[in-house]
Write a structure and sequence with these properties.
nine-stranded mixed sheet; 2 domains; alpha/beta; 20 strands; Rossmann fold; 13 helices; GMP Synthetase, Chain A, domain 3; 454 residues; 35% helix
Length: 454
């Protein structure tokens, strides 16, 4: 209890202050605004949008030209729908104009380069500043509070991002200990590591577990099949993120871990977009992100109709993403939520999904690990990884001008063999574009190993 109190009231506030972020102050603003009436929430988002657009017109060369070409006047924006006068921003545009999208006068010391996971088959690099860096954690902590989780409560992150894992030095470990968090590697999911993780969870007894949806399911499956007596490893809730939480995964996590499950939806470039509440609704983070749901012609669709999700991050000022096409789909959900939160609702967004791959030894690993690795290969515009056998993988690659064939192919082989085993045969196919998948879904890491029923 003393450590929890110190983490909540001393160590976490000091940590955020040392990082130059007013996360807790912004968290309090979000806690207050979630109860506002619909009109007041819309007005708040509009005010923030107007500020972002004026900033982009004054400071960002890319948007100065874009506004001029579109005949768009930020001063004339009186409603969130006025964004529709601007063209939709694509990933290819960001890659081409990344330097021009950076605001003038931004201090380099205040910027952090980030990169998408590559789950869409198209890794994307961009910059965030301290304003954006505080907004997502604040919104996430607000959502965690819906489930009784406060800063300083004991948490375990079963995670696999190279950004996080590469900083596991003594300072990072001390920081995690002080704020009552523990990081475990989600990419090592064989039975040996899972047994070790279960032992750690038994000792830690965390209030919450935060991980990829498929990783939570893999942990639950291990507990159910190997150590069913160890139910109740998580005291309160498991937060699933990074990919779609399949219904049978949710059921098995609840049954095996005996905790609540809540799904988070977002992306690195767009931020935290929506989060599931205890009543099962997905609330949009309206104070941070404007969400448009559009048909294929770019027109808004009615409530309840699924469409393309286009977002504008209101807190991304260093490198604004205005009307960015996420590549995912969603539908608005009308009415108020029984949980009491007044934030607008979405039906469950349809986003990325990963499949498990099989190593040379027969162990299963999440496809997230491969996706995270390949984003480090310079010059990959798009890719798709298809596992044809435990020792055979095909990689379809659409290169851009930065791709160096000899070096790039060697890196791809090295990354995949490091994950699946040195006996893995890696076949690389350079293409002008990725062939469409028969399912029509965005699948970029695919397990195509034949089963007995095939």
């Amino acid at each position: 209890m003393i450590r929890r109190w110190l983490a909540r009231h001393l160590f976490y506030p000091v940590h955020e202050a040392l990082c130059g972020r007013d996360t807790l102050h912004y968290l309090q603003q979000l806690r207050d605004s979630q109860w506002l009436a619909e009109d007041a929430l819309q007005e708040l988002a509009l005010h923030k949008l107007q500020g972002l657009l004026h900033h982009a017109a004054d400071q960002v060369p890319f948007y100065q030209a874009r506004f001029l070409d579109a005949g768009f006047d930020p001063q004339a924006v009186k409603h969130l729908d006025d964004l529709q006068k601007l063209p939709i921003l694509t990933k290819d545009e960001i890659r081409t104009h990344r330097e021009q999208m950076l605001a003038a006068g931004v201090k380099t010391a205040e910027l952090t380069e980030s990169c998408t996971s590559g789950s869409s088959g198209s890794p994307l690099r961009f910059w965030i500043d301290r304003r954006r860096a505080r907004s997502d954690p604040a919104a996430r902590r607000r959502c965690h509070q819906w489930f009784g989780i406060e800063p300083g409560d004991r948490g375990v992150y079963l995670w696999g991002s190279t950004i996080e894992l590469n900083t596991q030095d003594r300072l990072k470990q001390m920081r995690d200990w002080l704020i009552n968090e523990t990081l475990l590697n989600a990419f090592d999911l064989d039975d040996v590591h899972l047994r070790q993780y279960v032992e750690r969870l038994l000792v830690l007894q965390p209030d919450y577990l935060y991980s990829y949806a498929s990783t939570l399911w893999r942990l639950a499956e291990y507990v159910r099949t190997q150590q069913p007596e160890l139910k109740g490893l998580i005291r309160r809730v498991a937060f699933a993120t990074g990919e779609q939480l399949l219904p049978h995964w949710r059921d098995e996590i609840i049954q095996a871990l005996e905790c609540s499950v809540a799904e988070e939806y977002g992306c690195r470039e767009g931020g935290l977009i929506a989060h599931e509440c205890p009543a099962g609704a997905y609330h949009q983070m309206l104070e941070n992100v404007v969400v448009e749901i559009l048909d294929e012609a770019g027109r808004p669709v009615p409530d309840g109709v699924e469409g393309r999700m286009v977002i504008t991050n209101l807190e991304a000022w260093a490198m604004p993403f205005i009307r960015y096409d996420t590549g995912d789909r969603a539908a608005r959900r009308a009415g108020l939520c029984e949980c009491g939160v007044r934030l607008p609702r979405l039906w469950r967004p349809t986003g990325r999904s990963f499949e498990f791959l099989v190593t040379n030894t027969g162990a299963r690993i999440t496809g997230v690990s491969i996706s995270r690795d390949l984003k480090n290969v310079e010059g990959l515009a798009h890719y798709r990884v298809i596992q044809l056998a435990p020792d055979r993988v095909q990689v379809q690659v659409v290169p851009n001008f930065r791709f160096q064939p000899e070096r790039g192919t060697a890196e791809i082989v090295r990354y995949i063999q490091a994950r699946l085993g040195p006996a893995t045969q890696v076949e690389i196919e350079l293409l002008d574009q990725l062939p469409a998948h028969p399912s029509g879904k965005y699948r970029y890491v695919i397990n195509a190993i034949p089963t007995a029923s095939d």
